[in-house]
Design goal:
The complex is a heterodimer of chains A (1040) and B (511). In chain A, the strands form 13 sheets. Chain A has a 22-stranded antiparallel β-barrel. A five-stranded mixed sheet of chain A has the order 10-17-18-15-16. A four-stranded antiparallel sheet of chain A has the order 3-2-5-6, with helices on one face. Chain A is 9% helix and 46% strand. The radius of gyration of chain A is 32 Å and the shape is globular. In chain A, a hairpin with an 8-residue loop joins strand 40 and strand 41. Chain B is mainly α and 511 residues long. Chain B has three domains: 215 residues, Serine Threonine Protein Phosphatase 5, Tetratricopeptide repeat, CATH 1.25.40.890; 172 residues, Serine Threonine Protein Phosphatase 5, Tetratricopeptide repeat (Alpha Horseshoe), CATH 1.25.40; 60 residues, no CATH class. Chain B is 46% helix and 4% strand. In chain B, the strands form two sheets. Chain B has a two-stranded antiparallel sheet with strand order 2-4. Chain B has a two-stranded antiparallel sheet with strand order 3-5. The longest helix of chain B is centred in the first third of the chain and has 26 residues. Chain B is globular, with a radius of gyration of 26 Å. The chains are: A mainly beta (1040), B mainly alpha (511). At the A-B interface, strand 29, helix 11, strand 33 and strand 34 of A face helix 1, helix 2, strand 1, helix 3 and helix 8 of B.
Chain lengths: 1040, 511
């Protein structure tokens, strides 16, 4: 509120400018700079202090100002986002350097609630703001990952290094239980927060979920925003803050605001980054003859006469003189490479409070560390802000982006083909002009292009009808075209080339009309009303063609339809058209900004929810007590601010769609000449399906001490998710395959703490701020369909009363040191055996798996619920130090108490079991596997290849490979130097700043695998995943 | 100016909710949802048609009717002599020798030559339950009310749903024995299997209540015999009663009486007649005056059927079927011993003359069963071209014989029983039954059913329900009493039935 009045005040003064006239004046000249980086600051208001404050002028775009003031008077320098500076002008003092210190007082922040800017001081919900400054200087394809560790309760895991893809993002724990697939390719349906970019809601999962291991380009919409163009990001966490965003805000809301124009004289700024992506440390392999010898040694040690004989029939082992089998190829080198990349961003802005504009042009290019993958982005953003008078305000924004992604022959997230090929024996020859295996050709020469082209336009008009009463209307159109073109050369696909071409169109038309009214009575009772409605029209359609057998690998078209070579295609069945309509209202009251009450209510109706109950209702209530304003605390000078917040809110997601409620009817041709329309028996119509409900209680506490030098934010929450939907299989006698059940629920509760300190005094030459945050989230599954106690989904189990997503594993007790350690069934006198075969009795060197059911046979019944695949504690640490022109910025993040399955290690050990095959052999020096009865071993004997298939000692679903995935990661370090003004001027520049930075710097972890973060959402470390590169970057900011 | 702008704003905001309902009403382009369906009688009709077709599709998913109704009698064997079909086809047809010895495990083996014939679909009952769910939903939806659907039509569609449901249960009981029984729409519950006599009793009770709403005949001739009529309901009731009479011995006279009464109703309705044998091809083609209920396979609307589903496919050859490598010889034949029993030397029978040729007793690939002869589907060529047939479920001749059997079992009206029997014999141009000669009346009726309904999927079920399956005299593959009691006459049930249903048990005999 305060800022509004300041702006209004400035505006008023601005328009009545030039009226002042004074006598006995001194001319004061000087320069306004930012204290942090010594950059000039334009547009700062210069106000003459006194009983009647008077505006004298503004600093120009070079930070320079010149005013004339009465002798010995006080000047106040004011700028939004900075603390006021009051300077006494003594006679003769004319060449001033005013250092503006950015305002770090949390309560001065402007937060956004239901598309309206509010002062944090009078809002009740839990949210956190990250400024654009904090996430720049690091070139990444997706700005989301830079939020990692910055916001307590926002858990971001950069679990793929695939350029252009997203990791996972979740606010406040688990919200869904939809698991598909199993083992290392199991996949948790994402419950990502809703992104609102410049007031326009964008679903981050929309393209992504579709692109996950299915057709489609899979470029995340968030990858299309250049980080350089981001002004602020606000993360809304509790239901009070998100309730005005309705159903779609059930998983939290992240608001992204792009930069606006802010310079009287057009200003051109350039940011360039040149960076190198380096693959992580790869696996150590045996090469050439060492591999052959090791394989033969393995056979001689474990095999019998027939096995020895087989050596001579296996050319890769026997025919060492054959040049085809006499190589030492480093396959990993073929596929994993260090790459050099660059980004360029140019922004032009100008204008004043009345009219300003901004244009941003971005280019980002990253070659993946896996060959034949990469991401390129081209952006243009234009916006314009027009305030001809203090009543009308027009804002127009136009953003276009093209994301171009190369997926190789993989799916982006998974590069299974590459992982397989990198595991080929080093004895085989590397790719050359005349020789390459089909797998290699497939990985390296598959021509895959994915384009995601997005155009987003929006316009907002608001008009102040009466004092306090503001009307606004906002419209936007968001259109995305996604295409994928894949050409697989003949040599990679059994001598038949294939062409796959996919395209989709996704459009959202959006309109919001709102009315706000604010009224203050005696500056004591303040009221604020906000009412708006929203409508969406969303359309999606996708199709593909798939054709095999072009004349050769060069001749790729034109293609026609042909019965033989057309392998399907057409419009996909995921066509959708959806209309949404919502009404929302908010009421806020505060008494002297001391006691605050927030009430909101929103109704969401969707065309897919059916008519019986079209409205999902989202109410919330919030209370706040700024207790530092009480008389009792007024005397405490050190107390800058302090408050307690309490909120309750509910987000309701629509109850499935009309098809799951009422069934799908499809025409099926004719019977006896009459048309047939029949029910689809996949899903039984469930007309009583209840909507999923998220109810959140939040209790928060904020404290600012010693002029905001120390700040504390603490939140605790309890989130209850009821009526979770889950597809349940039905018995065959029902005729239907599945039912969408609503009988599932879970709860999350947790604590979030953010501590910020700026310990050095304002006068210090060194600026130092440090901020630490952490969140503990516990989740429990409370209910499952049919009142089941547990549901097993591959190796994930949902068990009531435990953490929601647990692992379902065999418990490995140890390794049998000798045969007499194997338990013997007292009834039959036989040793404990594996269920896969009647004769697979365990022996020395085998893993000892707990026989849970005590039948001396190992089956799936012996699996048990173990571990938690979701992190319990997440958080981060950020520090910023600047001295003169130097600054250093370090960000770290941590994840604690998470169980991950080290399938990478399991796979590495499994490779040994086939000495006759053409697999590589990895070094196992670091692994304490069973060698003899005398030495205590922690891993079974991998070299017993004859029995490997019988007992499968290195199955991934065992507790042997479940490890603690806690880690502390230094996300990035930036070291920057801003050149002196004078130096920059000599170069005919306004400002010049250079920096070096590194991303994904180092991970501290006890985890024995490569990277505890680079695992699936369900905690599987699959070697087929895309490794996360380390980035070294040199960058420059130039302002002309 | 200010006021006008404000006014416009408020008007726009005010108008939005009014248009909201219409705005939210998006009709999906590519599919219909349930709340858009059930809006007119034609919707109901289309849904009903889909149920018939679904049922039909189940019966044509494999060699269904022959497999369940004829092949297990022990009288049908693969033709190995004088068979000029391809070696592969001959190897496939060895499956009939497995049927003939009730070796269903080999029939269902996934490694044998006939694995592609999809016999395993017989063990999966989910398609029948889809028909049952569909019928339940049909009944539920018409009862809720459909705009423009008259009261009479509402009841008629409901009765049609009941008929289809009962027919599905009747088929399942004869194949699987005990089944899960329910009539609730959208049923998702877990049920145990219920004694099949009780299941049929429930069906009998329900169909009795609803049959009166079914028309005697449809005005549209296209629907003759292919849609549920009162006659079809009577016929189904007769069959269900006769089945239960064979198992629920304590109450058998009640069942026989009910069957005889239902038969009487059919006869007295004067809707059906025995078609002359010269036009018999018309009966097999379907929608004849003799047909009571059958499933239609129209090449005009639906393309070529799965030709392997029809009995005629295995016992006809070129030129009765189209030219093609595997049509040079019949795949199987009826044992000479069986045919000789049915058609004793020296007794005139036009069926023998019309349905068999000189190779009748040859037991070779030259054998042909010409009952299924007909006009080859126009436009079809090659191995798949066969005459157009319906899947005959109930026809008048069968009903007459069934009534004769019921009356004979009741024992108080043999005159009427003989009259029924002779109606069929007269049409066949054979001598009237004139009292016990070689066979007792009941055996004579059974023999007559064998002759008249040969290849129509009735033989094996007649053997089972009359207990003759345990008698060497009537089958070449008899079961022992203990085999019979263990359910050797049923089919195995696919283990997928066990999923999500802890109370489910499979057929013990086949475990």
């Amino acid at each position: 509120m305060r800022k509004f009045s300041i702006i209004a005040f400035i505006l008023c003064l601005c328009f009545s400018g030039g009226l002042f006239a004074q006598t006995a004046k001194v001319a004061v000249e000087g320069e306004v700079i930012k204290k942090t980086d010594q950059e000039v600051l334009g547009g700062v208001s210069i106000i003459l202090d006194g009983p009647k404050k008077k505006i004298l002028g503004f600093s120009d775009d070079k930070g320079h100002f010149s005013v004339s003031v009465p002798d010995n008077s006080d000047l106040i320098f004011m700028f939004v986002g900075y603390n006021d500076q009051k300077i006494n002008i003594a006679t003769g003092k004319s060449d001033l350097v005013v250092q503006m210190e950015s305002s770090d007082n949390l309560m001065d922040e402007v937060v956004v609630r239901g598309y309206q800017k509010r002062s944090r001081e009078v809002t009740t919900g839990a949210s956190f703001i990250v400024t654009g400054k904090e996430i720049q200087d690091i070139p990444v394809s997706n700005a989301e990952q830079l939020l990692q560790g910055k916001v307590a309760g926002l858990n971001i895991q950069v679990n793929t290094g695939a350029p252009g893809y997203r990791g996972t993002a979740a606010i406040r724990g688990v919200s869904g239980i939809d698991v598909s697939g199993s083992g290392s390719s199991s996949f948790l349906s994402p419950t990502s927060p809703l992104y609102v970019i410049d007031g326009i809601p964008v679903e981050a999962d929309a393209d992504y979920s579709y692109g996950f291991n299915t057709s489609g380009p899979g470029v995340s919409p968030l990858s299309l925003i250049p980080p350089e163009d981001i002004q602020t990001i606000e993360v809304l966490k509790d239901a009070q803050a998100t309730s005005l965003y309705g159903s779609r805000g059930a998983f939290g809301v992240i608001l992204v605001t792009t930069r606006r124009g802010n310079s009287k004289i057009p200003r051109v700024r350039y940011t360039g980054n040149f960076f190198m992506n380096k693959p992580p440390k790869l696996r150590q392999t045996l090469g050439g003859n060492a591999e052959r010898s090791a394989k033969i040694a393995e056979i001689l040690a474990e095999g019998d006469y027939d096995d020895y004989l087989r050596i001579s029939g296996t050319p890769i082992l026997a025919d060492s003189l054959n040049p085809y089998y006499n190589n030492s190829t480093n396959w990993q080198d073929v596929f994993y490479k260090t790459t050099g990349n660059q980004t360029h961003n140019l922004s032009i802005d100008g204008g004043n409070q009345k009219f300003n504009y901004k244009a941003n042009f971005g280019y980002y290019s990253e070659d993946g560390i896996i060959a034949n993958t990469g991401f390129k982005r081209y952006n243009t953003t234009l916006n314009m802000d027009y305030r001809p008078n203090d009543k009308l305000h027009v804002f127009v924004n136009l953003a276009g982006g093209v994301g171009k992604q190369l997926k190789g022959d993989g799916q982006g997230l998974f590069q299974t083909g590459v992982a397989d090929n990198a595991s080929v024996s080093s004895l085989l020859p590397g790719p050359s002009l005349f020789l390459a295996s089909s797998g290699v050709i497939s990985a390296l020469q598959t021509d895959n292009k994915n384009l995601s082209q997005n155009l987003r336009v929006n316009a907002e008009i608001s008009y102040l009808l009466l004092p306090g009463l503001n009307l606004s209307s906002n419209g936007s159109y968001d259109y995305t075209v996604g295409t994928e073109e894949t050409f697989t050369p003949a040599a990679a696909n059994s001598l038949v080339s294939t062409i796959y071409s996919y395209n989709d169109r996704n459009s959202t038309l959006y309109n919001r009309n709102g009315l706000t009214y604010s009224k203050s009575i005696n500056k004591e009772h303040n009221f604020f009303f906000n009412a708006f409605n929203e409508i969406y029209v969303k359309k999606f359609q996708a199709g593909f063609i798939f054709q095999s057998g072009t004349p050769n690998d060069q001749f790729r078209g034109p293609l026609g339809f042909n019965n033989y070579s057309s392998k399907g295609g057409g419009v996909l069945n995921n066509y959708s058209e959806q209309h949404l309509s919502s009404f929302a209202g908010a009421f806020s009251y505060d008494y002297r900004k001391k006691y605050v009450l927030d009430l909101t209510y929103r109704l969401d109706a969707s065309s897919v929810a059916g008519f019986d109950n079209p409205y999902a209702k989202n109410p919330s209530i919030g209370l706040r007590w700024n207790f530092n304003k009480e008389k009792l605390f007024e005397k405490l000078d050190w107390l800058t601010y302090s408050d307690i917040r309490m909120t309750w809110g509910r987000n309701i997601q629509p109850s499935g769609d009309i098809f799951s409620l009422y069934g799908t009817y499809t025409p099926n041709g004719y019977y006896i000449g009459s048309p047939r329309i029949g029910l689809n028996y996949d899903v039984v119509p469930n007309s009583t399906l209840a909507p999923t409900t998220n109810t959140t209680y939040n209790l928060g506490f904020d404290l600012g001490m010693f002029d905001s030098k120390f700040e504390v934010i603490f939140d605790t929450y309890y989130k209850k998710v009821d009526n979770l939907h889950r597809s349940v299989n039905l018995p065959t006698t029902s005729g239907f395959n599945t039912v969408l059940s609503d009988h599932a629920g879970l709860i999350d509760y947790g604590y979030e703490l953010t501590l910020t300190a700026r310990p050095l005094p304002a006068s210090s030459k060194v600026t130092w701020s440090i901020s630490v945050n952490g969140a503990i989230n516990k989740d429990y599954l409370t209910l499952l369909p049919n009142n089941l106690n547990e549901i097993i989904d591959g190796s994930t189990v949902l068990k009531v009363g435990r953490n929601t997503l647990s692992n379902y594993l065999l418990k490995t007790i140890g390794v049998y040191a000798s045969n007499d350690k194997v338990p013997v069934d007292p009834v039959t006198g036989l040793r404990y055996r594996s269920g896969s075969s009647g004769t697979a009795f365990f022996q020395e060197g085998d893993p000892f798996w707990q026989d849970l059911d005590g039948d001396y046979v190992l089956t799936d019944n012996d699996k048990q619920v173990l571990g938690n695949s979701q992190p319990v504690v997440t958080g981060g640490m950020n520090t910023f130090i600047s001295y003169k022109n130097f600054s250093i910025n370090i960000n770290g993040s941590f994840t604690l108490n998470r169980d991950i399955i080290n399938d990478a290690l399991a796979g590495r050990l499994r490779l040994v079991k086939d000495p006759y095959g053409s697999n590589t052999l990895l070094l196992l020096n670091d692994i304490n596997y069973w060698k003899s009865a005398e030495v205590q071993a922690s891993y079974p004997n991998p070299y017993d290849f004859k029995r490997a298939d019988l007992i499968n000692p290195f199955r991934s679903d065992q507790s042997l490979f479940q490890e603690d995935g806690s880690y502390f990661k230094i996300n990035n370090i930036t070291f920057a130097y801003s050149f002196e003004k004078s130096f920059a001027k000599r170069m005919h520049l306004n400002a010049l700043r250079v920096y070096v930075s590194s991303n994904n710097v180092f991970t501290f972890s006890n985890y024995s695998g490569p990277n505890p973060e680079n695992v699936t959402a369900l905690g599987y470390d699959a070697s087929g995943g895309y490794p996360v590169a380390r980035t070294y970057n040199v960058g420059v900011n130039i302002e002309f | 100016m200010k006021k006008i702008t404000g006014f416009i704003f408020i008007t726009i905001i005010g108008l939005l909710p009014l248009g909201c309902k219409k705005f939210l009403d998006v009709k999906p382009m590519d599919k219909l949802s349930g709340n858009m369906f059930w809006k007119s009688p034609s919707d109901v009709n289309a849904f009903t048609m889909d149920l018939y077709a679904k049922f039909r599709n189940k019966l044509t998913s494999t060699e269904f009717m022959p497999a369940v109704g004829d092949l297990r009698s022990g009288y049908i064997l693969p033709a190995t002599i004088n068979n000029s079909n391809s070696a592969a086809e001959k190897a496939i047809r060895e499956v009939y020798s497995k049927f003939a010895t009730n070796d269903l495990r080999s029939v269902l083996s996934t490694t044998r030559e006939w694995k592609n014939l999809n016999y395993s679909s017989i063990t999966k009952w989910v398609d029948f339950y889809q028909v049952i769910q569909g019928a339940n939903i049909l009944c539920d939806q018409v009862d809720k009310g459909v705009p423009d659907l008259t009261d009479a039509l509402t009841k008629q569609f409901h009765a049609e749903g009941v008929f289809l449901r009962c027919l599905a249960y009747f088929f399942m009981v004869r194949i699987y024995g005990d089944v899960v029984y329910y009539t609730k729409a959208y049923d998702q519950d877990v049920h145990p299997r219920e004694n099949f006599v009780d299941v049929l009793n429930s069906c009998i009770k329900e169909l009795n209540d609803y049959k009166k709403y079914l028309p005697l005949a449809y005005s549209d001739p296209a629907y003759t015999a292919v849609r549920a009529t009162r006659g079809a309901a009577n016929a189904l009731l007769m069959n269900m009663n006769m089945w239960n009479a064979g198992f629920d011995k304590a109450n058998k006279s009640r069942y026989f009486q009910a069957a005889a009464d239902e038969g009487k109703e059919i006869i007295e309705s004067n809707t059906y007649k025995l078609v002359s044998l010269d036009e018999f091809a018309q009966v097999m083609k379907g929608r004849s005056q003799e047909g009571i209920f059958e499933f239609n396979q129209s090449t005009n609307y639906e393309g070529l059927p799965n030709f392997r589903a029809f009995f005629g496919e295995i016992m006809l050859k070129y030129p009765e079927k189209g030219a093609g490598g595997d049509n040079n010889s019949s795949h199987a034949y009826f044992k000479a011993k069986f045919l000789a029993r049915l058609y004793p030397e020296g007794q005139a029978d036009r069926r023998k003359d019309l349905w068999f040729d000189a190779n009748m007793l040859s037991e070779t690939g030259n054998f042909e069963f010409l009952k299924f002869k007909g006009d080859i589907i126009s436009g079809a060529t090659g191995a798949g071209s066969i005459p157009e047939w319906d899947l005959i479920i109930f026809r008048y001749a069968g009903i007459l014989l069934l009534r004769a059997e019921a009356l004979e079992e009741l024992g108080n009206n043999d005159v009427e029983a003989i009259k029924m029997l002779n109606l069929v014999r007269q049409r066949a141009g054979t001598a009237d039954y004139s009292g016990a000669g070689a066979y007792q009346l009941s055996d004579a009726i059974f023999n007559e059913r064998c002759k008249e309904l040969m290849g129509e999927g009735q033989l094996y079920f007649d053997l089972v329900r009359t207990g003759r399956i345990m008698n060497m005299e009537w089958t070449d593959d008899p079961l022992t009493q203990s085999q019979f009691d263990q359910g050797a006459w049923t089919w195995p049930i696919d283990p997928s039935a066990l999923l999500e249903n802890p109370s489910m048990k499979l057929n013990i005999y086949w475990q």
